[in-house]
Design the sequence.
């Protein structure tokens, strides 16, 4: 199914999680097995089966001193 948290609309997607924490509307069309997280500073879109790899991006941002995004 498609799970929305916050302002989101979908057309024809399956197995999608959309989390929108701001006022922006997130629209998805025809996605499969995808995670979308929208915050005021960052938008994350990833394949659901690779969600565990987000930690590598967090580590990379920490090393580059881009901590305002963490």
Sequence:
């Amino acid at each position: 199914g498609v799970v929305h948290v916050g302002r989101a609309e979908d057309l024809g997607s399956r197995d999608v999680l959309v989390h929108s924490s701001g006022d922006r509307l997130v629209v998805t069309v025809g996605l499969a097995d995808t995670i979308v997280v929208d915050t005021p500073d960052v938008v994350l879109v990833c394949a659901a089966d690779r969600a565990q790899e987000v930690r590598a991006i967090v580590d990379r941002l920490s090393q580059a001193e881009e901590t305002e995004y963490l």
Q: What stands out?
A: The two ends are 29 Å apart (CA to CA). The mean pLDDT is 94. Residues 47 and 69 are 20 Å apart (CA to CA).
